[in-house]
Design goal:
Elements: H1 3-23, E1 38-46, E2 52-60, E3 64-71, E4 80-88, E5 92-101, E6 104-111, E7 116-123, E8 129-137
Antiparallel strand pairs: 1-2, 2-3, 3-6, 4-5, 4-7, 7-8
């Protein structure tokens, strides 16, 4: 077999293998964040330049509600302060995760209740606050 025929055969096998990798089902979003269950909502947070900076995801895990804050865009993979806090209504019974992270803060979990409160905070590597948002967690009205 000529070198050209071997190269054609090699690239055909390589293309077939690459195509099958693409066809594999994607991992659920929860796999990288520690939460499981169904994503019930999310919020997008933007920096002062209007770029997507982070997303707060809310998961229904059955008996628990799970929340995390995931860096986005230019902030993803940068060492920065991030914090996520999940509380019963009126800022009581809180659980939180805070520190210097590359990708996300959390997960934090509370037993599922009618209404909870989440606080998402993120600073850039220089310490400037980019996100400092408080939101009700679905299914609040």
């Amino acid at each position: 077999m000529s070198i050209r025929a071997r190269l054609v055969q090699f690239f055909a096998v390589f293309a077939l293998a690459a195509g099958s990798l693409v066809a594999l089902p994607a991992q659920p979003a929860s796999a990288a964040s520690g939460c499981s269950g169904e994503v019930i909502a999310w919020n997008e947070w933007r920096d002062s330049a209007g770029r997507l900076a982070a997303k707060t995801y809310y998961y229904n895990e059955g008996a628990n509600t799970c929340v995390n804050l995931v860096a986005q865009g230019v902030y993803y993979g940068q060492s920065k302060y991030m914090a996520i806090k999940l509380c019963d209504s009126y800022n009581s019974g809180c659980v939180s995760d805070a520190g210097t992270f590359l990708y996300y803060a959390g997960p934090v979990r509370r037993p599922s209740r009618v209404c909870m409160w989440a606080v998402s905070t993120m600073k850039n590597s220089a310490g400037t606050t980019i996100v400092n948002k408080s939101t009700y967690v679905p299914p609040c009205n």
